[in-house]
Amino acid sequence: xxxxxxxxxxxxxxxxxxxxxxxxxxxxxxxxxxxxxxxxxxxxxxxxxxxxxxxxxxxxxxxxxxxxxxxxxxxxxxxxxxxxxxxxxxxxxxxxxxxxxxxxxxxxxxxxxxxxxxxxxxxxxxxxxxxxxxxxxxxxxxxxxxxxxxxxxxxxxxxxxxxxxxxxxxxxxxxxxxxxxxxxxxxxxxxxxxxxxxxxxxxxxxxxxxxxxxxxxxxxxxxxxxxxxxxxxxxxxxxxxxxxxxxxxxxxxxxxxxxxxxxxxxxxxxxxxxxxxxxxxxxxxxxxxxxxxxxxxxxxxxxxxxxxxxxxxxxxxxxxxxxxxxxxxxxxxxxxxxxxxxxxxxxxxxxxxxxxxxxxxxxxxxxxxxxxxxxxxxxxxxxxxxxxxxxxxxxxxxxxxxxxxxxxxxxxxxxxxxxxxxxxxxxxxxxxxxxxxxxxxxxxxxxxxxxxxxxxxxxxxxxxxxxxxxxxxxxxxxxxxxxxxxxxxxxxxxxxxxxxxxxxxxxxxxxxxxxxxxxxxxxxxxxxxxxxxxxxxxxxxxxxxxxxxxx
Length: 551
Description:
This protein has 551 residues and is α/β, with parallel strands linked by helices.
């Protein structure tokens, strides 16, 4: 069923259900009460949009005080519950799990309390001032309409004003984020999102200095023609939805903001960026499949107050071609389901060709930029590369009038990681492990970006939702946890960023061509005993022995 048909059916039902309830109730009344009800409450239901809230006006006109305050509860929930049930039946099955039983119970409790409160307040006002009571009752019922029709969970992040430096207008400061990935094997018991170990991973990110985390649920698409998109990944969709929702709530409980990034995994092999249906009809079918996937997670994001949602990840052949209009339409529909900030995670080498950036709040970039084109690059070469990246991203932000953020950034723990940062750890063999090279690449990219106000911040790729599980990637993988790169990451978290408001005074360890030799790498770090990585800390001041700094 199309969204238009579903909306039309629900609009009609919102009129019919209360009207049927009122007609049934009318048959039980005395002639005098019936006449008063039909003249007063029916007028009230017209005034209040013929919805379930019209039952408050009906009860107010037909019941004496104080029974009207009690009768109003079942009178309201009878048509409202029927309307909710119809909405549930008309909702595509993969999207139904976004409304869990806890949210339903919470909504019922809050709605019941609001109905009783409104009836009591209106009665007190009416008794206080009979002359203006009629007008005040209308205002009270209108207020109830507004309260009860508000979304169950409002997004915690306000929408951005226009401008490439708009992130500075938010109270949250620059994004200092870590992607906490799922445990990608359902055979791992009691690990991953929504578990005690997952909460430990989030708490560790908070202790390191992160203010945001990215949560990355996956869906499966069968092939690069876009056939067979399934929301199941490892665990079934219902379990996965509950786990991701708990992880979001756990992050919020720790004071972390959340970026929800639904990813796609191609079952038959290949990169999601190359999904490319054969013809226009195939593109339309693919867009419909992807809509189901994205709106499922959008409802989860809205229900659980996610601050930012990525509408896609590395969908190059969609958003850089003439087929991008399908994605633009989907973004418009997305905003009717989700009220937070919307981004899209473009790949580093196609962001300048992506045509949908003007529809976003924040431009996201999976920033696996090479910082050099030669082996054994020194710190000078890497910083020059980082400064070029900062300049290029600044130009993109200014061109579109949107702040830019690194939706993913990271380097593997190997020799020359900044040469081809996108190489996947599982595809490597005979790797030379090099923590120092990874750490230098981190600093060389992040330090220049910290100085431009158009950069909203970054998310490190990645740690995992079980701090004790080292099986998710090889020793030379991306994770900075327990490595020298973790120390640079702590610097980046505690240093001042140009997107902070007000801007701070603590620079990112002086990493620049002019000053990197004369300042402390780690001087701004929040050093805390008993935090993973403490034992690996190099000397704080440059004395020729710091393994991170050149001699």
